[in-house]
Amino acid sequence: MKFEHLINFNTKLTTIFFELKFFFLFQITTIKIRFLTKWQVSSFADYYWFLFSNKNFTFLNKYL
């Protein structure tokens, strides 16, 4: 019972850290995009449209 509780706690921690990592990656890339192209990336949808339309998968694969 304790062991299962530990496993659940670990999975929760890893998901939280993964979400935080993804959030900070998003923030950093939006800053870079704003600095380089001076575009206002307003939301996640615009950001992903920008990514997939330009086929920039390399830095996503590097960080995730």
TrEMBL record:
Tree of life domain: Eukaryota
Keywords: Mitochondrion
Protein's name according to its UniProt entry: Uncharacterized protein
Annotated organism of origin: Oxytricha trifallax
The organism's taxonomic lineage, starting at the top: Eukaryota, Sar, Alveolata, Ciliophora, Intramacronucleata
